[in-house]
Structure formats: C-alpha cells, structure tokens
Amino acid sequence: MQSKENILSCTEEVRVRFNETDPLGIVWHGHYIVYFEDGREAFGREHGLTYLDIQNAGYVTPIVKSTCEHFLPLKYGETFRIVTTYVNSISAKLIYRYEIFNREDQLVCSGETIQVFLDSNGSLCLYNPEFFQNWKDKMGLS
C-alpha cells in the first residue's frame, strides 16, 4: 500500500527517434519498455536512487515482471512525456508505474515493472538492503 502523502514521481520529456519506428512510421511496441527505462533513469537521478547507487552498494535489480498497455500510437519526431511513479512496498523490491502522454496530454501507454534485489553472490534479498531502507527512510516511505 502506498501512502498518499509521500508519492514520489518524476516526469521526463523524450522525442521519438527514427530507429524506434516501424515501416508505418509509428513506434514499435517493444520500445515502450525502453521508454520505461528512460523514466526509471530520470527517477533515479531526481530522487537519489540511480543504478550506480544500487551497484555501488553491492546489489543489482533485475526486472522480474513488466506490463505494458497501449492506447494510442506515437510517431517519429513527436515528443512525449513519461511519468514514472514509485510504488512503496514492504517487500524488498522496486515497483514503478509508468504513464506516457502525447503532446495533447492523451494517455498513450501505461505499465509497471517490478525489480528485485540480488546481492553480489546473486542471491535474492528477502529484506530491504540497508542502503535501500535508508533511502526509504530519507524519503518518508518507511
């Protein structure tokens, strides 16, 4: 359950590149997962939880589940914004929700990813790593 008072999110503007489109000139469906990655990267920079921070603490966070729902197409040259929201959980995992909006503020795509923590031996962490719990405390998410 996520507290309404401490919702952490980030908005990033992105432009569709030529190599992301199919022969019809629309974004190929698989690239939306890459856009989610753009959102996670921006979130990490804004809120102090980058992949380098995680790696420097001795962990990796592979994605174990991803969902993506498509509503409208994006086309080459268009700009869009991706809103990435952290979903707080008591479990040792990172859950992010994504919403992609076009220039007309229409919802183009939404989705979610779940990542788990693996230590330097590749073992699944059942409890929040200390650095992550410290981050949650700092953000008021405990």
UniProtKB/TrEMBL annotation:
Provide an example Pfam family for this protein. Answer: 4HBT_2
Give the top-level enzyme category.
hydrolase
Give the enzyme's EC designation.
3.1.2.-
Q: Per its UniProt record, what InterPro entries does this chain match? A: 4-hydroxybenzoyl-CoA_TE, HB-CoA_thioesterase_AS, HotDog_dom_sf, YbgC/YbaW
Q: What keywords were assigned to this record?
A: Hydrolase
Q: What protein family does this chain belong to?
A: Belongs to the 4-hydroxybenzoyl-CoA thioesterase family.
* Name of this protein: Acyl-CoA thioester hydrolase
